[in-house]
Design a protein that fits this description.
The complex is a heterotrimer of chains A (312), B (83) and C (396). With 312 residues, chain A is an alpha/beta fold. Helix content of chain A is 33%, strand content 22%. A ten-stranded mixed beta sheet of chain A has the order 3-2-4-5-1-6-10-9-7-8, sandwiched between helices. The chains are: A alpha/beta (312), B mainly alpha (83), C alpha/beta (396).
């Protein structure tokens, strides 16, 4: 049983990817790490938006864009990966509960701070009663969500909405400074989201998901090579590698592969591999000579996430 | 500014009603259900509003039904109970 | 592929370990008391607290006192150690660890923020390095061994029920042979204040399923199960305590925090678990209900139970009158209690109950009973965001 990507959508520091120009249009993260966000009221009513964390708004917008690929009512699972959840609302509730002198505390920020409020809100808007899960495992949160999505499909579900999201805010930057994180990491801290509809029907596909894995590594080059070999391939079969780094310091890796470092554009956040996959699947759609693309997420100094996709 | 106008501004801020102006809220219009469309979480936020701005403490969320019916009923309650 | 339960471990307000918890459950002795260890609450609060400080927990675990370890991790380590026993989580079989949590390292993080907001003092900023849930799970998993797969589920009050379900699915689908599953949450001011802001916190000991219930009390703890397939069992030679035969997750999709009055999500979770297990509702001998003692949950859950079980009697009880609502740990702790029911052929009662809810004649089990024939136990966990999970355990 094969798994296909039917649609993908992202909100990031980058403009929406435009076909063949996609990779050329990427702008180095540099000074400006603001998200390029849509007008959320296109997707969500104002009375509903007001209750949403930034993570939820990004996720709902991406989800609704992807869901155009299928009949909403047929969605059979919603799975989200997030490393830190809704940090802005967590900070807000912390501040008001510690620093304010009122006895009664406003509940909205507390409700929005829950990690699964993102997936829960998507289900609420769609009136979707199906499998709803949130994975929170640092830099591998998105890969865990993907593995769960693949498991759901192998158990017989027809389609799954899966995505990754993390917020960026001033507090995280301040904490990174105080914790003396490597300046390269501090300068690339960002947020973003990317969502996908996965399913088993080739006719709807924009790319095929060949394999997803999480590996421990001592040598990332050898580990990725082993992964490719387990899938009957070698580096020479892969036209492009999409490499990303997470929030722990790791020396940059050199792969025997034409690579683009997606976190140099999207910035670093725990679930950034979702953006890496979005970039990779867009690349495969438009570069007709490309057969395979590999997303390599160096999640920590000992673990990496790998997603191999194939042109259909 | 009179209490009701003040209240409308506070309502908009506390409930994050981004697209609504004080002039959009009529004094006697129902705030919940079909009116402004507020819900149970908003009712809790209004309890916080009473505490924050008027020093009035509500113990039981059920009391909120009558108090928060409209801006008029809220203003009446505040006049009677403010500390 | 069968999914066998071969180890159980638990920590709660009732104490550390299966023995202490079983004894209190049998003797109807609640662990909910005014807070003692957790400080700086706005007022004295009834909580299900383990009456040991973090330093005392570290000493028990032989963890150096100066180690950055949030309370959630310490509770998790105690329970997971007990569940694992002498079994190894390494690469001789495909092994994994799946935790469930909502609080994570918040007990340390909020201490840091307290220093910042009240004193402008940032000296405890390193507390934040253990804030995120994944890091807390890593701490516990590393203490257990070197499992190949490590993950955390966070779905509010159904977190550890979902970790258990994910572990079971991975075994069933041939991805893992042995997995330690469950979850943990410590008390924190953040969550106590959060539930107070929702005005669903009882100022006295909670009364699950009682007409006059006034809300929940929060609790803390950890509950873990060791799940194995036949391949793993051949290697570990562990005794089978029970089987995990059914599971289902559904979404209520009604409100961010409230559940639908008719208990749609709960009903779908229970129905789905029964269907997966290939069981009829009358096969269930006992339900460990979610039963938080909020007006909303207990009404919805009882309505859902009525929809599944119709006019037939069904033994059900909530153990939250003993432990409080342990949030992300509740699914794990209550799964452990469900397995204890099967091992000991007993049912644990729903304490603090005296009056049936209006329009509903069902009453929970009120007294501890042993020498009861228990073959299948259902355990329910329902969380914010409409997340609804039901697990079914069977006698081995």
């Amino acid at each position: 049983m094969s798994t296909y990507i039917y649609a993908s959508s992202a909100i990031s520091t980058q403009n929406q990817l435009a076909g063949e120009a996609a990779l050329d249009s990427l702008v180095s993260i540099g000074e400006n790490k603001d998200l390029i966000e849509p007008d959320y009221s296109e997707y969500i009513k104002p009375m509903v938006i007001r209750r949403m964390s930034k993570a939820t708004k990004m996720s709902v917008a991406c989800a609704f864009r992807c869901l155009k690929a299928i009949d909403y009512a047929s969605l059979e699972a919603i799975i989200v990966g997030t490393g830190l959840g809704a940090t802005t609302d967590t900070e807000k509730f912390l501040k008001v509960s510690i620093a304010s002198e009122v006895n009664m505390l406003p509940p909205t920020a507390f409700i929005q701070s829950g990690h699964n409020s993102i997936a829960g809100h998507i289900a609420l808007l769609l009136k979707n009663d199906c499998y709803n899960m949130t994975h929170v495992q640092q830099g591998l949160s998105f890969e865990h969500a993907m593995l769960d999505a693949l498991l759901n499909l192998s158990e017989g579900k027809k389609n799954v909405l899966v995505g990754g999201v993390d917020e960026k805010n001033a507090l995280l930057n301040e904490i990174a400074t105080r914790l003396k994180l490597d300046t390269k990491i501090q300068n690339q801290l960002a947020g973003g989201s990317a969502y996908f509809i996965l399913g088993s029907e080739k006719s709807k596909a924009i790319a095929k998901v060949k394999a997803v894995t999480i590996m421990q590594y001592t040598s990332p080059v050898e580990a990725a090579q082993l992964f490719l070999e387990n899938n009957g391939l070698s580096y020479s079969n892969v036209q492009k590698g999409f490499v990303g780094y997470s929030l722990s310091f790791v020396e940059p890796i050199q792969l025997p592969l034409d690579t683009i470092v997606y976190t140099d554009y999207s910035g670093r956040f725990f679930s950034s591999a979702a953006y890496g996959l979005h970039l990779a699947s867009t690349y495969l759609q438009y570069f007709i000579n490309a057969k395979f693309a590999l997303v390599i997420n160096i999640a920590s100094s000992s673990k990496m996430g790998l997603i191999l996709i194939e042109r259909v | 500014m009179n209490l009701k106008e003040e209240l409308k501004k506070q309502l908009i801020e506390q409930l994050n009603l981004v697209e609504i102006n004080p002039s959009d809220i009529e004094d006697d219009a129902p705030l919940f259900g079909d009116g402004l469309g507020l819900d149970s979480i908003d009712a809790l936020e209004l309890i916080v509003l009473l505490d924050t701005y008027y020093n009035i403490k509500i113990d039981k969320p059920e009391q909120g039904k009558e108090i928060f019916h409209s801006v008029n009923s809220m203003a009446d309650f505040i006049e009677k109970n403010r500390a | 592929m069968n999914v066998f339960v071969t180890g159980v471990g638990v920590v709660s307000a009732l104490g550390i370990g299966i023995k202490a918890n079983f004894k209190a459950l049998k003797c109807h002795k609640s662990g909910i008391r005014p807070n003692k260890i957790i400080e700086n609450l706005l007022e004295e609060t009834f909580v299900g607290e383990l009456p040991l400080s973090n330093i005392e927990l570290k000493n028990l675990l032989q963890v150096p006192v100066e180690t950055n370890a949030p309370r959630t991790a310490l509770l998790g380590m105690l329970a997971s150690n007990e569940a694992l026993g002498n079994t190894l989580l390494d690469n001789k079989v495909r092994s994994g660890f799946i935790g469930g949590s909502t609080v994570g390292g918040m007990d340390l993080s909020e201490d840091y923020f307290r220093g910042v907001y009240l004193e402008g003092n940032h000296e405890n900023v390193t507390y934040l390095t253990t804030h995120d849930l994944g890091t807390v799970t890593d701490i516990i998993a590393k203490n257990c061994g070197e499992p190949g797969y490590v993950n955390t589920i966070s779905t509010a009050c159904s977190s550890s029920a979902n970790s258990i379900m994910l572990g079971a699915r991975m075994i069933k689908n041939g991805l893992l042979d042995r997995v330690l599953v469950g979850g943990n949450d410590a008390l924190s001011r953040f969550t106590i204040n959060g539930f107070r802001s929702l005005m669903i916190y009882d100022k006295e000991i909670c009364k699950p399923f009682d007409k006059n219930r006034k809300g929940l009390n929060l609790g803390e703890g950890a509950g873990y199960l060791l799940l194995e397939n036949e391949t793993s069992l051949t290697q570990s030679k562990n005794k089978i305590l029970a089987s995990l035969v059914g599971w289902h997750n559904a979404n209520d999709a009604y409100h961010q925090t409230g559940t639908s009055p008719e208990g749609d999500g709960a009903m779908k979770a229970m129905k789905g678990a029964l269907a997966y297990a290939g069981l009829q509702s009358n096969s269930i001998n006992h339900i460990n209900a979610h039963g938080t003692a909020t007006q909303n949950n207990d009404q919805s859950e009882l309505n859902a139970i009525n929809r599944i079980f119709g006019d037939t009697g069904i033994n059900f009880s909530s153990t939250k009158g003993y432990t409080g609502h342990t949030l992300g740990a509740s699914g794990g702790i209550e799964a452990v209690y469900s397995v204890l029911s099967l091992i000991n052929q007993c049912v644990f009662p729903n304490i603090n109950w005296s009056t049936p809810m209006d329009n509903n004649m069902r009453k929970p089990v009120l007294d501890f009973k042993d020498n009861v024939a228990i073959t299948h136990v259902m355990s329910n966990s329902f969380g914010f965001g409409g997340n609804s999970t039901s697990l079914i355990f069977s006698k081995s």
